Amino acid sequence: MFSLVNGTGSTAVGYNSQYNTSNSSTGAFLENTSIGHSSLKGSSVLASNTGSQNTAAGNYSLYNNSSGSSNTSIGYTSLYENTTGGNNTALGF
To answer: What pTM was computed for the model?
Structure first.
């Protein structure tokens, strides 16, 4: 978490994990867990990052997620392109 402005209950482990989670204009990035390099990195448009209750384990898992919520992604690049989808589960490479 490079600069979390508005959010609670999140855990990030790994280089650039939840890097773009700062959302200073609206909403918040809540209750997310990410483990791995650049996992759950989020959109570079900070106000778009409103996703909550996501779990990402593995390098680059849920990499582009911004407003998608309740996703579980385990494995290298799993759900990499997901941006807004919710309630998804992905396992594996």
So the answer is: 0.88
